[in-house]
Specification:
Blueprint: H1 3-20, H2 25-41, H3 51-54, H4 60-78, H5 89-105, H6 112-136, H7 140-166, E1 173-174, E2 182-183, H8 190-211, H9 215-234, H10 238-255, H11 260-276, H12 278-281, H13 301-307, H14 309-323, H15 354-386, H16 391-410, H17 423-440, H18 459-462, H19 465-469
Antiparallel strand pairs: 1-2
Helix pairs in contact: 1-2, 1-7, 2-4, 4-6, 5-6, 5-15, 6-17, 7-8, 7-9, 8-9, 8-10, 8-16, 8-17, 10-11, 10-16, 14-15, 15-16, 15-17, 16-17
Length: about 475
């Protein structure tokens, strides 16, 4: 089969969903932007998309991407704050200060135009997420619709690629740099597959736990979860598996108050087994590896850490970053200093650590602002975990909380957090807005339209109407 046909079928599947399943304008705007970022995350050259079509700022696909971003922001602008919404002025102030820091830092960047446009684009995304997603996800109904979209996305992006792998059709294998071929599914590299799989896992768990009722539906969701973990394993991404385990652990930790200690203990044991069992000891560096040469004769953990390209970059750039610890090198500029410290120029395109990169970009002020923002959202996660309410609401909260925590940990090994053109950035910040939205919900006064069977949310999600009717009001 022609690879271009596969990509066309993938895109067509989402377009069909937007046409017949999801008719809310804001969710469609989010979905279209999600789709174009997903196309960017694929192995574009393999599917017939040339660099001239996608790489430059004014290439056709880039123009589509930025156009859809502004449509997303426009729909966010039109979204009104719910009457009972509880705003967090301090969090908004921290976000605004960080965005201003990004914009002002461009004046000291080596390439002002590149740095400034990157800062502007992230500011637009931040506005769309901070205003649009937060207000939109204040409604439990809208949360369910978003969950359904992501559940479909998991089937579209995971199941066909795994099927083609096990049947020997030869799709989904990517060769990166000097390393051997690795499974990456429809994506351009294994790390993207791993991160996507990890952040999509809670949506599948929600469907398995809440939506699926019949035995065959439970088995179907269980099979999809198995495909997710199998894909990460075939991609040699222990980091992805660990992030998925963390996301699943947090999900069940939130919804099962009686067994939280057992859940945490089981997850720790599983992660330790994954990290230190003899079967994976020789490849343990893939916990943090994008660029390790797996044919090297390094067997123990310490020697693999010493040869890891990420560690070389981090150690190498730290003295350079510390020289400008108060100002940084300008937003989206500091990663350029990583090239001398890695053999792999593909790996050197980023620092593979979002926190170190923002420190290099903005210095200590930017890093402190980021940590304060994450702390504020994390505090809301704790408040939601301690909150007593309907099981449906607890499961909705669990999805957002698990993705936020798992993504926050994953960002320590990847640099997607502030990249507007990166699919994982959108998949992380939208649930972070979901955490804020669920915290802002006031059960004593909240009102919202209920789902009925046959609506855009679909018949299976319409079954949740009785639970929404029992919400405290």
């Amino acid at each position: 089969m022609n690879p271009a046909i596969i990509l066309a079928l993938l895109v067509g599947s989402f377009l069909w969903l937007f046409r017949y399943r999801f008719r809310d304008n804001f969710l469609r705007a989010y979905g279209f932007f999600f789709l174009v970022l997903l196309v960017y995350a694929t192995n574009k050259a393999y599917y017939g998309i040339s660099p001239e079509m996608s790489e430059s700022m004014f290439s056709p696909l880039s123009l589509v991407r930025w156009g859809l971003l502004f449509i997303f922001a426009w729909q966010a602008w039109r979204t009104k704050m719910p009457d009972t919404f509880r705003p967090d002025v301090k969090l908004v102030a921290l976000v605004v200060l960080l965005l201003l820091d990004m914009l002002l830092s461009a004046f000291q960047a080596e390439d002002f135009n590149y740095s400034f446009l990157r800062a502007v684009s992230f500011a637009v995304l931040a506005f769309a997420v901070m205003k649009g997603m937060t207000f939109h996800l204040f409604s439990s109904v809208n949360c369910l619709k978003l969950f359904q979209l992501k559940y479909y996305a998991a089937w579209i992006m995971i199941a066909p690629a795994m099927l083609m792998l096990v049947t020997g059709l030869g799709y989904g294998i990517t060769v990166m740099g000097y390393r051997e071929a690795q499974f990456a599914g429809f994506f351009g590299n294994p790390n993207m597959l791993a991160a996507f799989s990890a952040l999509i896992t809670p949506f599948v768990l929600f469907h398995w736990k809440v939506v699926a009722q019949k035995r065959w539906e439970k088995w179907l969701d269980g099979g999809l979860l198995l495909l997710i973990f199998a894909g990460q394993w075939f991609a040699n991404s222990r980091n992805g598996v660990a992030t998925s385990v963390l996301a699943a652990t947090i999900y069940f930790f939130v919804i099962d108050a009686r067994n939280r200690l057992r859940i945490a203990a089981a997850a720790v044991c599983l992660l330790l087994l994954l990290a230190f069992s003899q079967s994976v000891q020789s490849d343990v560096a893939t916990f943090i590896a994008k660029d390790v040469n797996r044919i090297a004769q390094s067997r123990d953990f310490s020697s693999q850490m010493a040869s890891e390209e990420r560690m070389k970059m981090w150690i190498g750039v730290w003295p350079e970053f510390w020289k400008r610890k108060l100002t940084g090198y300008g937003f989206a500029a500091s990663h350029l200093l990583a090239f001398p410290f890695t053999r792999d120029q593909e790996a050197g395109r980023s620092l593979h650590n979002s926190y170190l990169e923002i420190f290099g970009d903005l210095g200590l002020p930017g890093l402190i602002l980021l940590l304060l923002i994450l702390y504020s959202i994390g505090a809301k996660c704790v408040a939601l975990i301690r909150q007593r309410g309907e099981p449906l609401e607890a499961n909705i909260n669990a999805v957002f909380i698990s993705i936020f925590i798992a993504g926050t940990v994953n960002a320590f090994f990847e640099s997607w957090m502030f990249s507007v053109g990166n699919l994982i950035s959108l998949m992380y910040w939208a649930p972070a807005a979901g955490v804020v939205a669920r915290w802002a919900w006031r059960p004593a006064t909240a009102r919202e339209p209920l789902i009925t069977p046959g609506t855009a949310a679909g018949p299976r999600y319409g079954r949740l109407q009785p639970q929404l009717e029992r919400k405290i009001s």
